[in-house]
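Run log, item B.
One chain of 97 residues. Sequence copied directly from the ordering sheet:
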Amino acid sequence: MILAFSVTPLGVGEEVGEYVADAVRVVRESGLPNRTDAMFTSVEGEWDEVMDVVKRAVAAVEARAPRVSVVMKADIRPGVTDGLTSKVETVERHLGA
């Protein structure tokens, strides 16, 4: 499964980068394949391990912010591994054709 998620601290002002970094740090330290861009962090693994990472990432932000907003989107496809890379490679291959 690949899960893309966004954690947004509320009630802390407009500069939220340091709070988001707390969440991304949890994801990176998890050891699961992941990728962060300007809008989402994607993490790949089994359901329970991915959801545990998301829960811990949210808790890291929640520890410092009075309110937290979370957006998630999941691609659940049993038997597929390395989807974070292979899905992008497929699109790039088609762009190059």
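Observations after the first pass:
- The helical segments are 17-29, 47-62, 83-96.
- The chain has three helices and four strands.
Flagged for discussion on Thursday.
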